[in-house]
Amino acid sequence: MDAEVTTPPTSRPPIEVPFTLNGMEVTVSIDPAERLLDTLRYRLGMTGTKEGCGEGECGACTVHVDDVPVNSCLIPTYQVRNAQVRTIESIDPSDVGALLGSGATQCGACTPGVVMTAVWVREHPELLETHTLRELMAGNLCRCTGYDGIIDGVRQSLEERQQ
Amino acid sequence: MTVFMPTTLTEALEIRRDQDATPMAGGTDLLVHWPEQLDLHDRDYLDLWGIDELRRIEWSDDTLELGALATYWDVITDVKVGAAFPLLIDAARQIGAVQIQSRGTWAGNIANGSPAADGVPVLMAYDASVVIASHDVRRQVPLERFYSGYKEMDLAPDELIVAIRIPNRTYRHERFVKVGSRRAQAIAKVGAAIVSNGSGWRVVASSVAPTIRRCPTIEARISDGESLSSPADLLPAIRADVSPIDDLRSTAAYRERVMSRVLYYAIEEMSHR
Fold first, then answer.
1. Cα of A149 to nearest chain B Cα, Å
2. Region B21-39: what's the mean pLDDT?
């Protein structure tokens, strides 16, 4: 894996953090102040995860930690020690084809986060017994599509899974 | 920045006694200004996330106990908790979305001390208590007496919130109302949690005072049997109990007026059931 370190060097002693990334065991030596988002992007080269607002509102940085969507901008990397982390790089593009045809993506900044939440919903269809799709997707803001394209695409993708 | 990562509560309380380290649960409040507030990087932290014994959600005969690491999502997906305390679910589902709900904790919401918290009002309406421990002592404080001012609370530097205890009572009316800029992903401009067991009411207001606050004058006004003919009838009681301000999210005038409507229509609707 290409390691590209762009976080500034600090005098703080590093922390060793072992975790599983997309099924592969990794151990990173991090600055204690590092966010999971930065570790993924700049230390592990996983640049599919995007930074949007950087304060936990927009969901562009959504990844799964232990099978639940989280904002990777709000998680210090040391908190994923021994956890299962899953990013957009683990998703097979053919698996999200429905989103391409429905107008679910325009500028693309929110798309990796949208896909990670959509994949989680698809893998947990029982959630739709208590929640609407819109509520489950409410943590992923999109400033282009007006959401209908996203919801249509995710719905189609859920139907494909059922068939 | 040193991060302490204990795996037991005993270790955590030793660290709390010996070190000046900020406790961190899910981090959803502490990390919000992380990139630009560099002074946050010079503190030491006590990361509680690895202490599994604090994740428990436990029932006894008359009480529900939420461990300090119980998240909103843990409660949303707990059918038994939802049946007994529907307002916990109502509030939790309006806190961010799953990305926040899966990390944010009820105890963290209490310790963060925001006057706009969404978890605290429903806990206070249900008469919850905060279980607090230091290395040597364990004590319990009613949540309605926990705050003394803006971000000021009854928690010593060597103490941690370890659990929240909620008495399991039957209510006839329960309501949580949150008014924000939009339905999802918003912080409250005005909020209220209201419960009644048929004889008395408990009313808790958010975003209209330096702390989340129980409102005894409003409670007395709606219990006194004298009918309310419009939201304005509640204004004197509201002014006695809370002191809204102008800030980045709203104005004092808006908050006062909206609070009167929120309470009036909630009470009217509940009384007709």
1. 18
2. 96
State ipTM.
0.93
Q: Do A70 and B184 touch (CB under 8 A)?
A: no
> Per the structure block, which two tokens stand in for A88?
């957009």
- Classified as helix, coil or strand, A30 is strand
Residues of chain B with Cβ-Cβ distance to A135 below 8 Å are: 93, 97, 184
At B269, list the tokens.
């609707």
Backbone angles phi, psi at A146, to 5 degrees: 75, 10
Chain segment A110-120, per-residue pLDDT in tens: 999 999 999 99
Of A15, A70, A141, the CB nearest to B102: A70
Quick: pLDDT tens for B196-228.
Answer: 998 889 999 999 999 999 999 999 999 887 889
Specify burial of residue A96 (Cβ count, 10 A radius: 0-12, 13-18, 19+): buried
A17: helix, strand or coil: strand
Can you give the length of chain A in residues? Answer: 163
Q: Is A124 on the interface with B (CB under 8 A)?
A: no
Distance from CA of A80 to the nearest CA of B (A): 9
Token digits for B220? 């007395």
Q: Would you say B211 and B143 are in contact if contact means Cβ atoms under 8 Å apart?
A: no
Answer whether residue B238 shows pLDDT above 60: yes
